């Protein structure tokens, strides 16, 4: 696993740059095509394929502890609501999807993408266990025991179930009962790693021929002051000036097009030295430095420090792919700096830029 983790970390930075470009340009094209066009549907299939590729890389990195999760306070019910429509499409018409959300579930601290991945993996496994149809139930509830209070996510199916021998191995990396052509054996291992990372635990109840139930327990948090805000209609447009530093040509081109589309003036640089040169020759204000954490030569945090020495009011937003320079990313996160993970879409990037600029 250590060798696999080092290998995955070595390729993940460049890989996620490629996925960012694919997702980003696909979004730009899709917005110019009618919703009912067959071409639009083809583009959406490409987007889903790119998202799947990124998801697989994230799973590999999680095992080696080289991923860089963004821990925030989440409303578990809101995560379920946001995914419900997608999950209904995934399970198909043969399977009845029942969703029951308790009112007092509370909040948890985890990475929103990882929690969504937990749900996706468990739902996909439940779907595969019911090839002839059945009922899939997703429930949330609040439970308390001697340890504390937990937000519980329960996903149950009426499918084929599992023997005790299979249950004993389901969280082992690369173990699968689906065959080499249908499963990687990473799904439930990812679920287990994510829940452990959030200081939670999983209880499995399954009987052959009588379905399976996975109960995931996330510790509730008391401080809800930093609950993630993902309002769909949040403003994204602006007129400020952004200095965008990115060494990958395709990502830099995508970012420039995306931000200009939303009204921003964009100054683009390939590395820190060029960014400093541009900033020195720019007489007008620069409102935001948008820079990758890892750059050739001077890295993103060092560039931000240099720029803020001469432009004290400039705000900073970092971007990052999964990389073997994970210590640098962790240092940025530990400083409570704003960071957006690759791959990102143009819309997601613009919303994050707007959020950082609007913060008091």
- Content of β-strand: 15-25%
Number of helices: 11
What is the distance, rounded to the nearest whole angstrom, between the alpha carbons of the first and last residues? 44 Å
Strand order in the sheet with the most strands: 2-4-5-7-6
Q: Unreliable stretches, pLDDT < 50, 5 or more residues?
A: 225-233
Give me the CATH fold name of the largest domain: Heat Shock Protein 90
Share of helical residues: 40-55%
Principal-axes shape call: elongated
> What is the average per-residue confidence, as pLDDT, rounded to a whole number?
82
CATH superfamily of the largest domain: Histidine kinase-like ATPase, C-terminal domain
The Rg value, from CA coordinates, equals 22 Å
Order of helices and strands: HHEHEEHEEHHEEEHEHEHEHEH
> What would you call the quaternary organization?
single chain
Write down the domain tally. Answer: 3
CATH class division of the largest domain: Alpha Beta
What CATH architecture label of the largest domain applies?
A: 2-Layer Sandwich
Q: Which structural class do the helices and strands define?
A: alpha/beta
The biggest sheet, with number of strands, parallel, antiparallel or mixed sense and barrel status, is:
5 strands, mixed
The total beta strand count reads 12
């Amino acid at each position: 696993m250590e060798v696999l983790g080092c290998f995955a970390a070595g390729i993940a930075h460049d890989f996620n740059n490629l996925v960012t470009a694919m997702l980003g340009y696909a979004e730009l094209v899709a917005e110019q095509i009618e919703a009912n066009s067959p071409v639009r549907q083809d583009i959406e299939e490409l987007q889903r394929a790119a998202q799947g590729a990124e998801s697989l890389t994230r799973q590999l990195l999680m095992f080696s502890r080289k991923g860089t999760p963004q821990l925030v306070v989440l409303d578990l019910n809101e995560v379920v609501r946001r995914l419900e429509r997608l999950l209904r499409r995934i399970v198909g018409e043969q399977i009845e999807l029942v969703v029951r959300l308790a009112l007092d579930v509370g909040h948890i601290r985890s990475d929103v993408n990882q929690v969504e991945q937990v749900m996706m993996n468990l739902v996909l496994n439940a779907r595969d266990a019911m090839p002839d149809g059945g009922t899939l139930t997703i429930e949330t509830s609040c439970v308390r025991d001697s340890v504390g209070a937990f937000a519980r996510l329960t996903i149950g199916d009426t499918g084929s179930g599992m023997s005790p021998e299979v249950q004993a191995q389901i969280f082992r990396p690369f173990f699968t009962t689906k065959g080499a052509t249908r499963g990687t054996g990473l799904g439930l291992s990812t679920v287990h790693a994510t829940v452990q990372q959030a200081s939670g635990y999983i209880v499995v109840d399954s009987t052959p021929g009588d379905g399976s139930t996975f109960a995931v327990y996330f510790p509730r948090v008391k401080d809800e002051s930093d609950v993630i805000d993902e309002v769909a209609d949040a403003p994204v447009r602006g007129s400020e000036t952004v200095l965008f530093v990115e060494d990958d040509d395709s990502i830099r081109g995508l970012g420039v097009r995306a931000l200009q589309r939303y009204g921003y003036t964009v100054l683009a640089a390939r590395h820190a030295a060029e960014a400093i040169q541009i900033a020195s020759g720019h007489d007008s204000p620069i409102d935001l430095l948008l820079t990758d954490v890892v750059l050739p030569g001077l890295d993103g945090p060092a560039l931000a420090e240099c720029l803020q020495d001469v432009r004290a009011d400039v705000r900073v937003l970092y971007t990052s792919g999964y990389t073997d320079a994970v210590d640098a990313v962790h240092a940025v996160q530990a400083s409570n700096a704003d960071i957006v993970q690759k791959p990102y879409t143009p819309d997601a990037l613009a919303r994050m830029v707007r959020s950082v600029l609007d913060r008091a």
